[in-house]
Specification:
Order of helices and strands: HHEHHEHEHHEHEHEHHEEHHHEEHEEEH
Number of strands: 13
CATH architecture of the largest domain: 3-Layer(aba) Sandwich
Distance between the termini: 82 Å
Helix content: 40-55%
Bound molecules: ligand TLP
Structural class: alpha/beta
Strand content: 5-15%
């Protein structure tokens, strides 16, 4: 009897082993066939592309991966994750605000800010091409019940005069304006920078009219670096600021919302309502801490490489780069309509292994980040030259 059982066990084991070997073989042969397929068709080629689509594509560093693996964690909804708590304290300190909240994304951070600052039916003033208005799925209206009022900026910057113009005064017909959102750096304007004095002037004007000010500072460290000022100085005039750990700073996930202690306590509740109460999120915060400690200074390399690309592209007749707007890590290239459009340029670039995004029918955006280097930049410039020849 024992003998029979042993045989059955052995047969079962061999079956399992065979299945394991077959599955390994099939994945190895799949990998080989990927590698053999024509360039552009293979998923492996993705690894070789020069990816200028966004700084959101950056991969975590070795130090981040190690910190994530070793993070001491707990349940953050109970306030028991020491790594997350440390990130929130350090992040608040870094931007000179009383408190901070780790959020899942920049979009969630901006939405939580709007929900915390406003009541249903309020009017929120924003730059016409701001990320909050343009790219955040209308969350402020869908979930916050607020109405946006758009202001045309100058390279993304709203002047106090433009704000005053947009504020219509008290009238039974009008919604109550309660918040202004500004964006530094301004993505769609080409990564343009609001100077400290411009932030101060706008905030002063908004506060004088009883409005609060939120800064979408997804790339605020790029802005501070470009100006050569401490980020604290740049965000001091605003009531709240959101910045991303997951863009140029390279963390895999997460953003920070910072403001007064009272504001963050309320924001924490809104984040919970949105499903953003994360449990052992110290695993993510550990990477965020590395981002704050090690990755801020290196943004200067991105700016320098973006300048190099801008200079090189300026020599190519079919594309036009507004070098005045090239202030940080974003390059906008206008495609000559007599040659073609952004779709044509992007397809040509893709065939050359260079990825970018369109910002309209004639505009292509290139974003420089830690995972593209000089060789990628040279490939990009050579590709544009070849395609538009
Ligand atoms: N921007 C992304 C896209 O959504 C367009 C990009 O590739 O640039 N504020 C600003 C100024 C942003 O540029 C972004 C992301 C966000 C907020 C939202 O951040 P996430 O993607 O973390 O929700």
């Amino acid at each position: 009897m024992t003998h029979v059982t042993e045989i059955i066990v052995q047969v079962k084991f061999s079956e399992k082993l065979l299945r394991w070997i077959t599955s390994r073989e099939s994945s190895i042969s799949a990998l080989i066939s990927f590698a053999k397929t024509r360039k552009g068709d293979s998923p492996l080629d993705k690894l070789e592309n020069s990816d200028f689509r966004s700084d959101t594509v950056t991969l975590p560093t070795e130090a981040m991966r190690r910190a994530m693996a070793e993070a001491v964690v707990g349940d953050d909804v109970y306030g028991e994750d020491p790594t997350l708590t440390r990130l929130e304290i350090e992040a608040a300190d870094k931007v000179g605000k009383e408190a901070a909240l780790f959020v899942t994304s920049g979009t969630q951070g901006n939405l939580v800010a709007v929900l915390t600052h406003t009541d249903k039916g309020d009017e929120v003033l924003l730059e016409a091409e701001s990320h909050v208005y343009y790219y955040e799925v209308g969350g402020m209206s869908a979930l916050g019940g607020v109405i946006p009022r758009l202001i045309q900026g100058d390279a993304g910057v709203i002047t106090p005069e433009a704000l005053r113009e947009a504020l219509r005064g008290e009238n039974i017909h009008f919604p109550k304006p309660s918040l202004v959102c500004i964006e530094n750096t301004h993505n769609r304007a080409g990564g343009t920078v609001w100077q400290t004095e411009q932030v101060e002037a706008l905030a002063q004007s908004a506060h004088a009219s009883g409005l609060t000010v939120h800064m979408d500072g997804a790339r605020v460290f790029n802005a501070a670096l470009a100006l050569g000022v401490d980020v604290k100085e740049l965000v001091a005039p605003v009531d709240s600021v959101m910045f991303c750990l997951s863009k140029g700073l390279g963390a895999p996930v997460g953003s920070i919302l910072a403001g007064s202690r009272e504001f963050i306590a309320e924001a924490r509740k809104w984040r919970k309502m949105l499903g953003g109460g994360m449990r052992q999120a110290g695993v993510l915060a550990a990477a965020g801490l590395v981002a704050l400690h090690e990755m801020v200074g290196r943004l200067a390399d991105d700016h320098a490489l973006a300048q190099w690309i801008g200079r090189e592209l300026a020599d190519i007749p079919q594309v036009k780069v507004n070098r005045e707007r090239l202030q940080t890590n974003i390059i906008l290239a206008e495609v000559n309509p007599e040659w073609g459009d952004s779709a044509k340029l992007l397809q040509g670039l893709k065939d050359e292994g260079v990825l970018a995004n369109a910002f309209g029918s004639q505009t292509v955006r290139f974003v420089v980040h830690k995972d593209v280097g000089k060789a990628d930049a040279e490939r990009l410039v050579a590709a544009v030259r070849k395609i538009t020849r």
